[in-house]
Design brief:
GO terms for molecular function: nucleoside triphosphate diphosphatase activity. Residues 118-150 are annotated as: Disordered. It holds the Pfam family Ham1p_like. InterPro entries: ITPase-like_fam, RdgB/HAM1. The longest helix is centred in the N-terminal third of the chain and has 16 residues, at 39-54. The radius of gyration is 18 Å and the shape is globular. Strand 6 and strand 7 (184-185) form a beta hairpin. It is built from eight helices and seven strands; from the N terminus they run E-H-E-H-E-H-H-E-H-H-E-E-E-H-H. It has a seven-stranded mixed beta sheet with strand order 2-1-3-4-5-6-7. It has helices at 9-16, 39-54, 78-84, 87-95, 125-134, 136-139, 191-197, 199-211, and strands at residues 2-5, 24-27, 58-67, 101-111, 154-164, 179-181, 184-185. It is of the alpha/beta class. Bound molecules: inosinic acid.
């Protein structure tokens, strides 16, 4: 059984749409989110911590909103910015920009304690470098016999382009009201429509295809 590690039951319901019946359940475990400039290392670190906690295959995700005209801000800091500035302020800041294009990105991190020998791209290189740079604590794990190889994690990325607009719609969560894709904000879409185009849906689709052979 795969554990989707999240405090948000909605994410598990979304994952269930992509995976065989009864193959995934929620693990309510709040792993420590490291501060990093990219989503991959955050998801990878979370997957390792969650795997050590669960001792079973785990999937974690990390997502963020990247505004082009702000050089990708808030990106990995999206949660913090949502909690502090709020999405109205993010819209106000973006309203002064010439370029209001933005994207949601999601990175899923999968870990089951085994390597990915059959896969051409087993471990995110940047994450491996980041883990090595972080020192011995990060290097612990089942991934290597010499203690320098972190627990293997497989990453899957999803992306959806759009632009920042004045808030519209009352569905969804987070930045949904100010993110427009194809003429509708995410908060105006019903759940099926959002899932069909969302960053998390795209990443889950890639994961489900790969996981079927795992
Ligand atoms: P998390 O990685 O799912 O915790 O998300 C990080 C931040 O991005 C939080 O502020 C979320 O509200 C926001 N976020 C992630 N996915 C979405 C989405 O699908 N719609 C709106 N906001 C999102």
């Amino acid at each position: 059984m795969l554990r989707y590690v999240t405090t948000n039951p909605g994410k598990v319901r979304e994952a269930e749409r992509y995976l065989p019946d009864g193959s995934v359940e929620r693990l309510d475990f709040d792993y420590a989110e490291v501060q990093a400039d990219e989503l991959g290392p955050i998801a990878a670190r979370g997957a390792r911590e969650a795997y050590r906690h669960a001792d079973a295959p785990v999937l974690v995700d990390d997502a963020g909103l990247f505004v082009e005209g702000l050089d990708g801000f808030p990106g990995p800091y999206s949660s913090y910015v949502e909690d502090t500035l709020g999405i109205e302020r993010v819209h106000e800041i973006a309203a002064d920009l010439d370029d209001r294009r933005a994207a949601f990105r999601c990175v899923l991190g999968y870990c089951d304690g085994e390597g990915f020998a059959a896969s051409p791209d087993p471990v995110d290189r940047g994450d491996r470098d980041a883990a090595a740079a972080a020192g011995p604590d990060e290097e612990r794990g089942a991934g290597g016999s010499d203690g320098t190889d972190p627990l293997p994690v497989k990453l899957f990325e999803g992306y959806v382009p759009g632009r920042i607009v004045a808030p519209r719609g009352d569905g969804g969560f987070g930045y949904d009201p100010i993110f427009e894709h194809d003429g509708e904000t995410f908060a105006e879409m019903d759940t099926d429509r959002k899932n069909a185009v969302s960053h998390r849906g795209r990443a889950l689709e890639k994961f489900a295809e790969w996981y079927a052979d795992r």
